[in-house]
Hints:
The chain is α/β, with parallel strands linked by helices. The chain is built from ten helices and ten strands. It has one domain (about 1-350): Rossmann fold. About 40% of the residues lie in helices and about 15% in strands. The chain has a ten-stranded mixed sheet with strand order 1-2-10-9-8-7-5-6-4-3, with helices on both faces. The N and C termini lie far apart (about 45 Å). The mean pLDDT is about 95.
Amino acid sequence: MTVDTVTAADRVIMAELPRRASRRQRAVHALAYATLRRFFELCIQVNERGWLTPRQMLFIANNFDLLAVPLRPARGTRIEPVRFEHCRAEWVLPASVSAPAEMAEPAAILYLHGGGLVSCGLNTHRRMVARIAAAAGVPLLNVDYRQIPRAHVRESVQDCLTGYRHLLEQGIPAQRIILAGDSAGGGLAFSLALVLREQALPMPAAIVALAPWADYDVTGKIAHANDHTEAILRGAVFGMPAQWGIAVDGLLDPLLSPVNHDFAGLPPALIQVGAGEVLLADAELLAQRYAAAGIPLRLQLWEQAVHVFQVAADILPDARDAIADIGAFMRGELARAAAKDAAAWAEKTSA
């Protein structure tokens, strides 16, 4: 099912409604609203009333990834650590997926994890990204970019760029690379694509973003109707990391937010977001930029989906369907890029 939702000039982005929410999806949404939303509302109060300092709150958030060490990907998944100058990364290789060096036509997913630029990491996301890699049939490099307070978002983007350059240096053509990420990482994927364009580096085949945080100004999120239906993260929650480590002297540079740029030249994209999420506000802005630039975009709205519900694929059929859609989209874009290259080569050799 599709419905017109986003327009720019004479162009329209059709939002997809992939399926009705399962009973489990609805139950998880209700439970999250009753618990996690309350928890994050308490975090807002703690910050506003100064019960903990930003440094103390960041210490807790920065170390959350350690709690996820027991979360392991499916049996047979190989993990190969990679060390960069300023951050680490790891290859995630499901049993059915070969390493790039073992592939006749090397390809890769460059994944940027979420966490509001202050939390999460390789441990929290390893199980979900392994599912995505298996669905796409492509090896995945997960980059543990620097976060607040260790780095400003500009440096986070540079770490993502380091990961992208690493793939190119490994002999993986840009047209065989897909950028992907969730929440803060979804926003970073678009920021990275803008940096690639600025530096005249080759563009990847596509971008996949799960509930991307792409506007660091929280005004639109707080004003959005979904601020009342959001199951976990109200708009004000995103104001905390913006205040702690993105704003400089209390001022936000609008150009740090990818939604405030022209998207001409960016690759096709798939965005998945909960229909009731507050980050639908950011997804709508991204869709407007894509429509204005005339670039293909698939915008999927998932009913009763909590933030990055794909991480719960072990228990949610909706999440498994979403990851299957991601895999199909990635395979399709890689095949499209290969066909384009073959056509260009045939034209060159026949000239």
